[in-house]
Design brief:
Helix content is about 60%, strand content about 0%. The relative contact order is 0.14. By secondary structure, it is mostly helical. It has two domains: about 110 residues; about 30 residues, no CATH class. The protein contains nine helices and no strands. The structure holds heme C. Heme C (HEC) binds next to α3, α5 and α6. The site of heme C (HEC) has 24 residues, from α3, α5 and α6.
């Protein structure tokens, strides 16, 4: 029942978003597991969509970069995401700033197989740099905090 409704959510998002989100489809370069993960990724995008303003979650571009920096191989990357999403805790989180801003992510116990497909997709996808998200953060975060500085330098490097 739960699985079914998630399937329906993913399907309707696919239909609505197909021309936008899936326009530059590089499906050919994704593994079988990542293709299956991509098909249900709308569940995550409902919060992690980089175009949401105000944001509901950090864009996946930054999540991917942070996890790739932390974990040297794909298996460790995937395992860590599966574990976090099944049961998010502040201790497990690598990114402290979003928790401060948005609170802890709710647990999404979708099953290890589905989460592992989604995490594989997050590992393999070439996400666009979230330029609009960064621009919004730069204008809303006054001052010279560490996060704002990082955002500014990413923006300067990738969005100008
Ligand atoms: C209801 C909104 C919501 C949904 C749906 C959601 N997330 Fe999140 N996610 C958040 C928020 C808020 C944060 C930042 C706070 C935190 O880290 O808990 C976050 C953070 C994360 C992080 C970073 C954790 C860290 O180490 O700091 C990962 C990884 C993640 N989400 C994966 C996912 C995946 C995969 C899905 C889909 C299966 C998903 N999220 C769906 C709200 C959401």
């Amino acid at each position: 029942m739960y699985r079914k409704s998630i399937g329906r959510l993913a399907l309707s998002s696919l239909l609505i978003g197909s021309s936008l989100i899936y326009a530059q489809d590089d499906q050919a370069s994704l593994s079988e597991s990542a293709i299956q993960g991509k098909a249900v990724f709308a569940v995550c995008q409902s919060c992690h969509d980089a175009s949401l303003n105000p944001p509901k979650a950090p864009p996946m571009y930054g999540v991917q970069r942070r996890y790739q920096r932390q974990y040297e191989n794909q298996q460790a990357f995937v395992d860590a995401i599966v574990q976090f999403v099944s049961q998010p805790t502040e201790d497990r989180a690598l990114m402290k700033h979003p928790i401060k801003k948005l609170g802890l992510m709710p647990a999404l116990p979708l099953g290890d197989d589905m989460l592992s497909n989604i995490a594989t997709y997050i590992y393999e996808e070439n996400f666009e740099p979230p330029c609009d998200h960064w621009a919004n953060a730069i204008s809303s975060e006054k001052g010279k905090g560490k996060h704002r500085k990082q955002v500014q330098s990413s923006f300067n490097e990738l969005c100008k």
